[in-house]
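Q: Structure for this?
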Amino acid sequence: MSETLMPLWEVFIRNRSGMPHKHCGSVHAADATMALHAARDVYTRRGESVSIWVTPSSAITASDPGDKDHLFEPTASKPYRHPTFYTVPDEVGHM
Amino acid sequence: MGLPTHEPRGAQLSMSAETAGRPGPAPHASAAALVPYVLGLADDALVLGHRLSEWSGRGPTLEEDIALSNLALDLIGQARLCYAYAGEIEGRGRDEDALAYWRDEHAYRNLLLLEQPNGDFAMTMVRHLLYAAFLDPYFKALSASADARLAEIGAKAAKEMAYHLRHAAEWVIRLGDGTEESRARTAAALEELWMYTGEMFEMEAGETALSAQGIAVDRGTIKPAWEATLARVLAEASLARPADRWMQRGGRAGQHSEHLGRLLAEMQVLHRAHPGASW
């Protein structure tokens, strides 16, 4: 099946109301409607889903794995960005 | 419906043991008409479900392969509910397996449309559209049946058939409105299968009586919805509705095309060779 006739679509499903959609895989389909059908048939057979999103894979802009040094490495030295870095006084109670 | 020529030995034994010395279960009030009616629903679902299962591992794409298997499983699930119910009201101790695996071709009551070979993908989708466009509104109507079990089956199956209809319709639209090749194949499938569509709307005497009691659905009342669905889908697919013609019939009376025998042979061989086998 040629990529032109049946391009790739990324599939996101939401498994419970209120939770965000999560990427779960991809399907080949001729258009958006058929991509939704394929996603439903392939990824929601065990009652996993209350909602499906599909988007053309070509519409996704991805970061370059070669850029990881300057994109992600600098955060390693900034532990103060984690909430667990701080001690919360007992008087504050539940946050 | 003819009597089965074979009965599983185990079923006969347990039946006679259970019924020995005490009365059997009280027969259902309208069992005489209800059993063949429910068996017809069951056979329709099983035969089409088995046909679709023949696509498993051979679908045009991985995605559609899984989709076809899902459709098959919906239908086989509907068949199981109907066989179980038919067995109960019949009261002869036949369970779903006995009804599915130990009745021969002439005892099968399915519509001729549903036993037609899969052909190419266009043929399979056209057959499915023709039937789902009927069964979706039919089960919606059956969900209001005066018979609680049939109403339950109708409500569950209606949701499944709504998706079947949508899936088959979307494919027929794309095939009809696709390439010269897909269009020609889809148009040919419509022409070839049209003569099997009349049987969907035929009522047997017992079924008419059940429909008068609010138990079965008058098939004639489904025709306008069926026509409207086909008109919409075929227009979008730029395909012409075939002209009405002489219609094939006889499936309900056990008079089948040459294709059902082979389907049943493949479907029943394992169970008949190893009665009661399970996995």
